[in-house]
Amino acid sequence: MTVKTKPVIGVLIDPNASRFSTNGLNQNTFLLYRLLQKIKNLTPLLVYDPQLLLKGTNAEDKIELFGEPVYRLDLFYETYHLSVLLEVSAAVSSDIARRLQAAGTKIAMCAYGNRYILDQEAVCFANLESDGVNPNFSRRSILRETVRRDAVWMSPHFAWQKDYYKHRFNAKRAYICPYIWDYEILDKKYKNSELYKEKSPFFHAGNPANKNIFATEPNINILKTSLFPFQAYSIAYGELKEQVGDIYLYNSDHLITHNREAASYFSHFDSTTDRKVKFLGRASLPKITDTAQVMFHHHFQNGLNYTLLEAAKLKLPIVHNSEFMTNLGYYYKGANLTDAVKQIKSALRHEDRDDLERYNQQCDEVIEKFSIYNRENINGYRTLIINLLDSSFQPKLPQYIVNLEQELEHGDGYISPLG
User: Fold this and answer.
1) pLDDT along the chain (419 residues), means of 10
2) Cα torsion for 363, 367, 210, 300, to the nearest 10°?
3) Which CATH number fits domain 197-369: 3.10.450.750, 1.10.510.10, 2.60.120.810, 3.40.50.2000?
């Protein structure tokens, strides 16, 4: 099936460029726009809600983001028309949604966050006071959705929440969408960094930073914290001592200064008393990799992250537990500390491998799987958009998503049919 007219696809994006370097969701929005540009007979546009602008910023009809025009969403109420609005790194209010739908716009929520767990945290912890410095990240909206969206799309690592997403966002249909990435934004980070004016960001033998480990878990909810990386490193340090460099736990400084229980726990390890553990704030990736080259990434129900793909692009030794990238780097399963420690030891000897060419090739294969240039991913989004315009058309998604859905439908009885 083909769509006879040329649909105009609005991709709702956070208009504040300063939030892109530290927020994968904002990057995902821009990369989805980039992918849609590769589909014939579509006109993708970046759009923004003026209410989302930082204070003191004027709402203009058109602003610029990474060299691309971004148009005010309210221009499309009457003056112009959107065939489709994709809510990605932002969502519109009920009033805005109704105005667009009255004009015939189809709306899809691209839910790339772990909404089920975030909702549970909000119910339990949203009323807690902040520490006066850091916000309470559980204080997020769980308002009942009153606007019926035409579809909700979700990232593959949240497939088990498919039925929940459909009802949570009051959507007619729910689909798993391809996870996508590209290194355009990563390249900009390193080209603009003074640290890499005269050296390459890629892994190379003999770099003193090759013995240092870094973890970038945000520590804002249970999905990704510094606890497991700290534990695994501390065990490895206890066994190897002089062979292990330092570990840099970014986004963790507030745990030491404002969380007495966490600070007490961390303080009882040799790795901490020997000052091998650095509890730090947020930093840019060029700054991070200038200091440490071994990446440790641990997740709970959040197996797809841009930091893994960024590290793969740089050909870094990567210790991780992403079930979606088991052929990447030094993989361990689940929360198996014993295996994680073994993989740390192997990653610290990375430059001594005699198969580094094969390792680098596997990095490239993982990047290709999620690339915005991958024809399966492009066709997946093309057919998802057709489905928005014609619900009788079934999307054609990458094979790994088809396999994932079949596994869930046959193994998990609570996944209900979606008509």
Assistant:
1) 73 78 78 96 92 74 88 89 92 88 94 87 79 70 78 93 91 95 93 93 95 95 95 96 94 92 96 97 95 97 94 98 96 98 98 96 98 97 96 94 82 47
2) -110
3) 3.40.50.2000
